[in-house]
Each structure stands twice: as C-alpha cells, then as structure tokens.
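Researcher: Predict the fold of cysteine desulfurase.
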Amino acid sequence: MERIYLDHAATAPMHPRVIETMTDAMQSEFGNPSSIHSYGRSARHLLDTARSEIARSIGAAPNEIIFTSGGTEADNMALIGMAEALKDKGKHIITTEIEHHAILNTCHFLEKSGYELTYLPVDETGMISLEQLNSVLRDDSILVSIMFGNNEVGTVQPIREIGALLKEHSAFFHTDAVQAYGLLPFDVKQMGIDLLSVSAHKINGPKGIGFLYAGNNVPILPRTYGGEQERKRRAGTENVPAIAGFSEAVKISKESMAEKTEQYAGFKRIVINIFEREDIEYQVNGNAESCLPHILNVSFPGANVESMLVNLDLAGIAASSGSACTAGSIEPSHVLVSMFGKGSERTRNSIRFSFGFGNSEQQVEKAALETAKIVKRLVNK
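Model: Structure tokens for cysteine desulfurase follow.
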C-alpha cells in the first residue's frame, strides 16, 4: 500500500540537498565556532555564511538573527525576553486566541508572573480585527504577538497593516512565522516587524534548529546564560551542521517559492473538485482570500474527526486535525473554537491536509478519493 504524507504543516521531510549539506558539515566542520584556531575559524565561516543567507531571506541584517533550537524557543525568547526587558515600562501584552501553543502557553506563564494578557478573538475566517487591536492598545502595552499564518486553517493575518498601526505606538511587534516562512515573501523592515520566529523543519530542514529575528532596536534579554554566543543573547555552542542544513533549506525555499505556491493551489483545486464530483458534504475552514498555499482545512458534517483520522491512516494517508490528543481523547481545536464557538460541529469534524515536498497530483487525487469514500461510509452508516 502506498503511503501518502499530507501533514507537512506538522513537520516536513528533509530535502536531499539539506542532508548532503549537513553530512558534509558533520564530516568536515567539527570545530567550535568560538575557538580562534583554524578549526574554529572554519566553523565560524560556515556559521557566518548561513546567518547572512538567512538574514537576506527576510530583509534583515546578519547580527539580527539569533539561532535557537526551533520555533518554540524563539517564541519563548521573544515573549519572555521582551517582557523582562520592558517590565518597567508596562506589563500589558496582546496576542490572539488562535496562536500556536508555543505562544499561548508562554502567555499563560507570563500571566502567572504578573503580566496582563489580552487575547484577541477572530471571525469565522480566522482573521483578527485591526479596529479591535487598535482599541485594546494601552499606554502600558509593551508587546503585540500575532502569528503570520495559522498552522491549522492557514489564515494569513494583515501583518503589514498591523506593523503600520504599531508604528504609532511604543509596543514592539512579534510574529510567529513558522508556517509562513519559505512560502510567502516578506521583508521585516518594510512590514514593521520587530521580532519574528522561524523553525527549519517546516521548510525541509532539520529538526532542532530555528531562529529569532530581533531588530537592532529591540532590547531583548537572554533566556539562557553561559558563554557569549549569539552576541550574548543565547548561550551555548552553536549546532553548526544543523545551521548549515537550515541555510541550504532556505536557499531551496527561495528558489522554489513561486513554483510551490502554484503547485499547492493546484492540489487544493484537485481535492475540492473531487469532493464536488463525489457529492459529499464539506465546508472549507479559513480565509479564501488570505491564506497559506499549503494548508487545506475541511469540515465534514456528520463525520467524527477521530474516526476520520483512523480510517485515513488505515488507507495509508497521513493527515491531521488541529486538535491535541490528551489522555487518549481528542480535544476540540482551540482555533476552530475561536472561529465557530465551542458548540460548533466543525470543532469535531475538521481535517487538515497540508502539502509539501514529495507530493504529486496522483497522490493528492488518491487521497481525496479515499477521503470521500471514508466520509460516505462514516456519514451514511
């Protein structure tokens, strides 16, 4: 049985070029980048080259890139590092109800530490209101953290407009761009972004490496202490092979961005056309005009998400819900609850398909047909 992986928003396979780059680095660059001898200098050169490549990809300066262990650490560093640095100026932070748990759970920690959090709701397409954001800004608001593109339904927030709004305010602007990076072009300076989080494994790079962009005007405090790596902002010997692989993944994503956007849009059309042809009932969750190209979240009235996922897996298809599996039961997605309300059936019958490297039209067609069969079986039994 052919296995079809349609869960690239959770993690993506490493690109062969990334594996080759990392293997070369592991074999030849074992020096500590902080050492002054030739081995250290060689590793430092690789590190500096990767930092420059990654900085260029978002319109930043190399010294504004802080390598981390991934998106979660970058999010934690942005929120807690800024909260600690700015606590004398205020303790009010604004975010949204639909953030990744790397943001939400960090916000819960900050609430317990004496900070006041405002969680913006979203409409039925997953979009925040700029007017509402403006209305909750206060003199003591120090940070606004709003994700670039949602990992469950794919809705892309009005990031440029948020950046423009905050130019008139002293609050700093952070965005979790883990899902958007590598698929959407953006420039942090032009968009008014002060801090931005990214993870390599979403763009066919290795797990365990990411970065936080922090503009030179950002007074962030470190979260780890030790050596003076990353300009004293993140102690610990850098993971040189993973950073080299990350840089290669960035190059590949830049080369193929337009092609991938077109390809994934085609995949979405294939799925929807097959659902229409098979005459099953479905509803697409998210914002049709402002969305990530690779995520398609679909509600199937009368179906059950747990049964759907089990049956898809038995058919060799890896998809997901946006839900967290806790103690053997699937809790409703907090994103869908925010969009449709706690009692909505959509919180219990929605599946996320996410496309990526290695997928073909034939695979997507097969997955859509199998999904339609499963829906008919579950709904009509």
